[in-house]
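Regression test attached.
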Amino acid sequence: MKEDTRIVNAGRNPEENFGIVNPPVYRASTVTFPSVEVLESFDKNPFDGVFYGRHGTPTTFALEDAVAELEGGDRGIAMASGLAAIAVSLLAFLKSGDHVLVADSVYGPTRRFCDELLQRYNVETTYYDPRIGSGIEALLKVNTKVVFVESPGSLTFEVQDLPAIAKAAHAKGAVVILDNSWATPLYFKPFERGVDVSIQAATKYIVGHADAMLGVITTQEAHYTTIRKATATIGACSAPEECFLALRGLRTLRVRLERHAATAMKLCEWLKGRDEVDRILYPALPEDPGHALWKRDFTGAPGLFSFVLKETPKKAVVAMLDGMKLFAMGYSWGGYESLILPFYPEKLRTATQWQGGPCLRIHAGLEDAEDLIQDLDAGFKRLNAA
Ligand SMILES: *Cc1c(COP(=O)(O)O)cnc(C)c1O
């Protein structure tokens, strides 16, 4: 089956539900058993099958199966948020005295989890330049259990050489965990590039409508029990309604992404011609430093990118942003609507030095590109007038 056919069919089985197209929302805490034998059959393995609401219902399993299939892994585990999926994946592999390597361009809250929580449990984090590639070898210690990658990185979009990093990590026995939210399961196939665990902030493109929080961890069989046990022991789980919304969003992921990408490219081309713009951070652009790696490993780019302004006073940037009509300011991304966000990489990087003026991140939504360009154009007029 081609991928577009899989997107439509993965995790779906209408024959099991009166022919109804979408997997229904099964809500549950208690699940009852017809006999002691069936009840106790779950003692050996409470993670497979419908056992208790916290371990998931058929709605959860449908989403887990669908995302795992598209990522190219064996098993999926749905969590209440992308961050919960990241946190529990790290906890599953780390213990006191261990060391973890984390990309310097990682999602801010992932960094906070390492600095504030893992540190309290005596797990040491070293941040590395996301462009390190096979040079990661020099940073791997005997107690390095995890190499955490995010490619391209949050906000600044550095592309990582994941096959090179995975090769070095595996040679020293470390597991590679990837935050694959930007590319989605469609544009990057983690398990073909040496990744052991792939995480989706499904909140973003999979849900796609800015109205539900969800994370999905995908892994191969070898690591499945380790992670599933950790999620079950912590009590982390996801809500069936949110899984239903994610399954609904997933079916249109391809067509949405193509439009997000086309609009992002139009905005980039327009921004390139602006005097106010110093550079654009989007690996799909041939001049981007990560373009060659992106072209080698990815099959597409979604609608999320950043640009760096030439030195501009903050009040001028504020004048631009405060008057935007179509680009709303807000965290998250991946919905149908366009967003713009100021950010400060220098506050979030410790292994690398950030150079440049004010930074803005854009999520290109599904609006008409010409309307979006007009909104930006008016924004630059305010910026220049301030
Ligand atoms: C938003 C985001 C997350 C966290 O997802 P939530 O569902 O908001 O917790 C993780 N990684 C990246 C790259 C994100 O952008």
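Expected vs. actual: identical. The first helix runs from residue 3 to 9.
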